[in-house]
Amino acid sequence: MNRAVVAFLAFAAGAVVPFVVQAAGSAETYRQLNLFGDVYERVKSDYVDEVTDEKLVEAAINGMLTSLDPHSSYMNAKAFGDMQVQTRGEFGGLGIEVTMENGFVKVVSPIDDTPASRAGLKTGDFIIALDGKEILGLTLQEAVERMRGPVDSKIVISIKRDGIAKPFDVTLTRAIIKIRAVRSRREGDVIYVRVTQFNEQVDAGVKKAIADLTREIGADKVQGVILDLRNNPGGLLDQAVAISDEFLNRGEIVSTRGRKPDDVSRYSATRGDLAEGKPVIVLINGGSASASEIVAGALQDHKRAVILGTRSFGKGSVQTIIPLPNQGALRLTTARYYTPSGRSIQAKGIDPDRLVTQPPPDGAKPEDAPQLRSEADLPNHLQGEGEGENAAPRSAEEIPEDRAKDEQLKQALALLPTLKVVDGKIAN
Q: Bias regions of kind Basic and acidic residues — which residues (predicted)?
């Protein structure tokens, strides 16, 4: 076998080289690997500029993974370290959750109280240039690294937004982003808890918020809980399971099913209900993805909560982080999520029990409201079961800062006192 192929396999597979070599036992596989080796050697020897082995191998790995689905990717040592810091809830940057679509970086959600949210970036915005340099052709990792930089340094981001004919520039000042993933307040005798992403701090934050507000309102006066997961792009599976468990006394929360029939994992609830049997409403919209959909699906299937809003994003795939010998890591899609009733979330999402859309901003027409492209719209997305079936509309509403204009919240507050819970389920 071509030595370049052996080097590539050793780098990419690390400790599992024997498995890769065994899997490559067919003549066709060897032929394809030799083809890769021939191209690799020709680029090394004849490309107009000299290129390093590291750059070529990293590009080859990225190309292989991005051809699979939008969420599989390779992280070098720096990117892997940044990811680990971010899941702990504090990191340097601009404060936006992003994905890659059609060669451009797309804003999934600006994070509350960050430079991005204060500058007015919106879900669905396309970032097309950084400091005047187009990002077309960059990987998502490369674009994200360019957006990072020293604290207090400035960066000019060029935005293409639906409904606005020409791109426009926004100047942001980088800052240390401390994610306050849980926000809460009292709405009369209702406990309102907003979760902006599922990092390591979420379960503890939700417990504290509900306990503090229960004491403030009085346990006998609390009417129920509104859990706001709108524009929450997801995060850690264990935190989604933990939050679901906080409102369930028994039953399955979520299952994951992989490639093999016996590759199934199930997560179940334990006794204990933070809401103490009071009704729960979960708010979702087209920006609610992944871990948010796990929580909404679990509470919906067990009839523990009413799901209110618009259809969620539909990211129902599991990414496993596999550390590599070079201190980097492989993010690989390894399974699909299923709700307790066996519904696949992938490319379909969660339909609300009560469909409520936000009215357009003052002076805007409903047809001009931007529509959030879903998981099913992403190139090379993992096929979902039931994908394309009739479902509730999906929209990318902004959450109005003026609570009086938040129609979804208003309807949730009006609905909650009318709900009754019998044996841990919302009664019809």
A: 364-378, 395-406
Degrees, nearest 5: CA angle 88-287-148: 45
Whether 315 is catalytic: yes
| 317 vs 28, higher pLDDT | 317
Please tell me which residue in 290, 312, 374, 395 is annotated as part of the active site. 290
310 and 408 in one domain?
yes
Which residue in this structure is represented by tokens 């264990």? Answer: 238
Residue ending a domain, choose from 178, 204, 223: 178
Instruction: Classify the phi-psi angles of 95: left when phi > 0, otherwise alpha if psi is within -120 to 50, otherwise beta.
Output: left
Does position 40 have pLDDT exceeding 50, yes or no?
A: yes
- Band of pLDDT at residue 10, cut at 50, 70 and 90: very low
Q: Are residues 344 and 204 in the same domain?
A: yes
Q: Are residues 188 and 154 in the same domain?
A: no
Cα–Cα distance list, 332 to 5, 75, 161, 317, 335 (Å): 21, 11, 31, 10, 9
Q: Which domain holds residue 197?
A: 182-426
296 shares a domain with 162:
no
E strand or H helix at 23: helix 17-23
Residue 97 lies in a domain: yes
Q: State the catalytic residue, choosing from 73, 315, 374, 406.
A: 315
Residue range 365-381: mean pLDDT, rounded: 71
The pLDDT mean for the chain works out to: 86
290 is annotated as an active-site residue: yes
Structure tokens, 350: 């969660």
Q: Tell me what percent of the residues of the chain surpass a pLDDT of 90.
A: 57
The residue from 69, 112, 301, 351 that is catalytic is: 301
In a domain, 75, yes or no: no
* Number of domains making up the chain: 3
Q: Is the whole-model pTM more than 0.85?
A: no
For residue 214, CA distances in Å to 201, 299, 411 come to 20, 21, 22
Other CB atoms within a 10 A radius of the CB of residue 73 amount to 22
